[in-house]
Each structure stands twice: as C-alpha cells, then as structure tokens.
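Hey,
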Amino acid sequence: MPWFDAGVNLLDKRFDAEEVIQRAQDADVDKLCVITTHPNEWDAAVALYKKYPDQCCFTIGVHPHNAKDITESDYDRLRELAQHKGCVAIGECGLDFNRNFSPQDVQLTVFEAQLKLATSLNLPVYLHERDAFDEQIGLLTQYMPKLKGGIAHCFTGTAEQVKAYVSLGLYIGITGWVCDDKRGADLRDAVNHIPLNKLILETDAPYLFPKTLRPRKRNNEPAFLPHIAQQLGEYLQLDTDKLRISSYANSCELFSLS
C-alpha cells in the first residue's frame, strides 16, 4: 500500500527529480507534494507537475525568508499559477522571526496577502512558522473561518501550540524531526495531542534526515518516509499501517485529491 510525502523540496539543486521520484516509488511512496518558496520556483513546479502528473502535486507561495523579494507582478503570477491544475495549496507561507531574513513587517504583509488569496481561490494554506507563533496564530484565527483549511508544515512546537492549531482545524505535518533525540523532545510530547485524522507525514527533504536511520545519507528523501512513520508509530504506540492509511487519506482530504 502506498505512502504520501506531503512536503518535499524537490526543486532543490541537490536533487535529480527523476531519480528521487524513482527511489520514492521503489519505497512505495507514490505521491509527493512539491513545495515552492520563491517566485523563481513557480514555473519549475508547474513544469515538474506536467512531467509527473500522477506522482506530483505542488504548492505556489512565498516563504517568509523570501518575503522581501516579492513584487506586485509576482502577486498576479501567484494568483494565475495557483489556479493551474496540480496546485493544491498556497504556500509555503507564514512567519519566521528566528532569522528575520525578511523584515518582520514585510513578512506580515506578504503572509496576509497570501491568506487573502487562498480565501479568494478556495485553497488551503501551507504554513511555516518559527519563533512567531503568537503573531501567526493571531492572523490564522482571523482568516481560518474563511479558509478552506491548511497544514502546519514541519511542525516542531509544543503540545499547547499543536492544540491551538488543531482547534483551528489545521492538519499537522510531522517530519524526521521527531527522530531527533536532542531536538525532538517537545515534538514527541506534542504528537500525542494530534488526532489521527489531523496527522500528516512529510519529509521536508532534502532537509531533516531522520537521525535514527542508518546508514546516514547526505540528503533526506521521500523514500525515507516509511522509516519516519515507523519511529513515530513507536512513540505513539500505533501500528505503522494505521499511520500510513490515515496520513494518505488526510493528505488527499487537505489537498482535495481523489
């Protein structure tokens, strides 16, 4: 039975997309959601989907790190490409006050613009947040009643934060971060508060190689998703097949895929 990697940076220069997709299929990971983070990735995502329509879907959006780069014409392209077949969400969007690669006021403006666009196009949002939870939850609380839904991508926060997201109806994306003994303690507590019908599995590849997987590889890949699920299942005392079936169904529900 197949797996769905609901978050992979397949446009990263470290990847040969064809090889990554083949290794994913060999591991029974038959569906990938390709994340975009910058306007310079959008056309490539559309092209990749056209080449692999059965294996891929994609997002269209602006990561908070790149908020400073967006222009008015980019907003027009964002609206146009978000309506392209295969686009399943607006994002990766949100707030990142940890490094502030874009000024915070610019991040807030660009994030809210994408929330408004998602509302007008009836698309879910694909969310990033780091060290900006209060500001992010404030905007989401305002817009979620009008939004189709969304996912807290690569969630690494606390039990209280996950409860707040779930209360808004968001799905929660879990990655190999849960496999990190040093950094993943809060997350391993938080995952116990995610309803099974709101839990989605993703790799965020090539980032976050699961530290419990041997031998160590240079890059994380969708093919390693079953290992992440196995580790998560042990923490939750839940059968891995249940995680696979529920996560696949949740991903399809979030992205309106049959």
